[in-house]
Write a structure and sequence with these properties.
With 272 residues, the chain is an alpha+beta fold. Helix content is 42%, strand content 26%. Strands 4, 9, 10, 11 and 12 form a 5-stranded antiparallel beta sheet that branches. It is elongated and about 115 Å long.
């Protein structure tokens, strides 16, 4: 009688391309036990027939069968796979394909939206300028648009302020929370500082080397969405916010009939 070939667990592991840990687990659950265990050394030995058994187990796993299902198939059906179970697996695959297709569409849509957001955001430096400033608390932004032409503008004219080209004006908000009057400071670049008055104070601001900026179109109530885009961009780039956001009101109720045409450039100074 010819000697039968026996494989130690490590050899069997390499031939079947499964880990020793996996083989020990299969032994524990009764899926594939060694053909022989040496009672003195504890060495486990597998034979050539088990190479085919292991190949079948791996094949069923690739088809999506669970270990419990594989045990049942081997115990009761041998090499024949229950047709109803195969049909069930086909339905599962079809369902998973649809889920993956929908997930792919959503991922592609998310990528496109994110790319559009990234395209809208730009970086630039903000110049060092002398500014005529006015600070007060207002109930709404509407108050600011009445304040500029009716109070700030006439006072700047009285003080002899001249605005250089290109003009640069913005507001900064100092509120620490939402729901109270807006603590706002208005800045407008001037050629040189004048004498402070009760309404106007002159300040010099240094250059901001880098600010992340975005053009916000539409109602001011929708600015939180724009801020979400800006701060997500800063976080993705690893930027540190270095100062208060600046709001440059370019177009608004004073020159545009449609709210959709209102344009505000938001500038956030950052450190790279």
């Amino acid at each position: 009688m010819k000697n039968k070939i026996k494989f130690k667990i490590g050899e069997f592991s390499k031939l079947c391309q499964v880990t020793v840990k996996t083989l020990r687990h299969y032994e524990e659950i009764g899926l594939l036990a060694p053909k022989e265990v040496d009672k003195w050394t504890g060495y486990r030995y597998y034979d050539t027939c088990q190479l085919r058994q292991m190949a079948r187990i791996s094949h069923l796993k690739r088809l999506g069968f669970s270990l419990d299902e594989i045990i049942f198939q081997i115990e009761f059906n041998g090499n024949f796979i229950d047709q109803e179970l195969i049909k069930s697996k086909i339905e599962q695959c079809s369902s998973q394909i649809e889920v993956l297709k929908n997930r792919l569409k959503e991922l592609e849509s998310t990528l496109q939206k994110q790319e559009k957001v990234m395209e809208k955001i730009f970086e630039k430096s903000l110049p060092a300028r002398v500014f005529a400033t006015h600070r007060r608390k207002i109930e709404s932004y509407q108050d600011l648009f009445n304040l500029c032409p009716n109070i700030i503008g006439p006072e700047m004219q009285r003080l002899g302020c001249k605005c250089p080209d290109p003009q640069y004006c913005f507001t900064i908000e100092y509120n620490k929370e939402y729901g109270v009057d807006i603590d706002i400071e208005y800045f407008e670049a001037v050629e040189k500082a004048g004498v402070d008055s009760d309404l106007i104070k002159f300040k010099s601001l240094p250059q901001v080397p880098v600010a992340i900026c975005i053009n916000h179109y539409g109602a001011y109530e929708k600015m939180p969405e724009t801020f979400a885009d800006l701060f997500s961009y800063a976080e993705a780039k690893g930027y540190e916010i270095s100062d208060h956001p600046r709001f440059c009101y370019i177009d608004g109720i004073w020159n545009k009939e449609s709210i959709d045409e209102w344009l505000t450039e938001i500038q956030i100074p950052i450190n790279r």
